[in-house]
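Page 37, top half.
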Amino acid sequence: MEPNAFNLTAFEFENMMDEPKVWRFVADNWFLSVWSSVVYVIVIFGGRWLMEKQEKFGLNTTLAMWSGALAIFSIFGTLRMWPEIIYVLRNESFYSSACKHGWREHQVTRFWTALFVLSKIIELGDTVFIVLRKQPLIFLHWYHHITVLIYTWYSYVEQTATGRWFISMNFAVHAVMYSYYALRALKFRVPNQLRMIITLLQLLQMVVGCILNFYTYNVKNQGQYCGITYNNLYYSFLMYFSYFILFAKFFYDAYISPPPRPIPSVRDEKHSIKARSRKAD
């Protein structure tokens, strides 16, 4: 690893973590991410089946606490990870930010990287609220949770250089997204435009992810050093490109395509006929 001159004073709680031990745990138990995903699928679809004949739960207070905690976590992660990227872009190069491991030499970025990796299991709990509140569970939601978890653990073990970008972007988007969820759960009136902005941020994240994969692939093909394996590049590109397609479709369906007109009931039709008759008289 090549350290850079970036320096950000670590808080006491950040210094307390022995990050190499966390890395060793993930490396020795990487398949835990796969098993967690299997259990996750069983729980959420089994839960949907059990909830079919049950009344939905409100859980607004619990959801607000859950989303609020993840929002605070993501805000801190954003504030602690992004200064290192900005420093590298200003003082070194985009190449360094995408291909070198300097960020792995700083206690602050190591700490938040480790927490980010572990948090991907915790975030599976998002779907429990969807199931218990009997809200629509779309493919994008659970596919995204599973693939992010498995890829994050896999890349952490390999100490992939592009991780500094993927982690920092995800922290930033989640800081906005979970804040929005928390405010909605607390019954605050949040502009609908914010929901669209969050989806646009997610789309931008996928575009940058694809660009990074293309860039690092070309760097490696030119014979230059880049701290990412070809296998990781293939998995990463497939993941980010599939996300882009799914989020683009979601954006189109939610904000561009006009909602279908409701089919009138027989009773509505009768009222409509009577109204037209009175108007004709």
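Page 37, bottom half:
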Amino acid sequence: MDEIKGGVVPREYIPAVETGIVEAMKTGILHGFPMVDLRVSLIDGKFHAVDSSELAFHICGSIAFKEGSAKCGPKLLEPMMAIEVVTPTEYVGDVIGGLQQRRAQVKNIESRTDTVQVVAADVPLSEMFGYTTALRSATQGRAVQSMQFSHYAEVPKEIQEKIVGKKD
């Protein structure tokens, strides 16, 4: 967003600043992951008749974005999946235990009949690889699951440190 007052940055250079910021957002500052859902304002700048160019303002926008982002304490996000597991009642404990080992948050357990229950949970996508095989093993092949994208959530700090390789 352009909040320049008094013409300290000529209008023809403002798109170059925006392009630099957008380019920097694509690689972010956390291990090359893109940055999303943010707002940037250009509030001040300097212009020099000899040294100023579109490239200079492009680079300046990129550098300013990276420096400002580092000060904001960005967080890594991960896709969360809504999962429903339909299982015979005798395996509900095994299903819940298996989901909790995968960092799931169980939201609901619903009885469909006297012998069948549905476990609903949110779970990180990264934890779900191999889950169908584990579910079949835990329930003797009698449970089924369906999964769909739900939302993004912040990665826990200890896992973010492993991914990014950064210790505070």
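Margin note: The domain at 77-159 is CATH 3.30.70.240 (Alpha-Beta Plaits).
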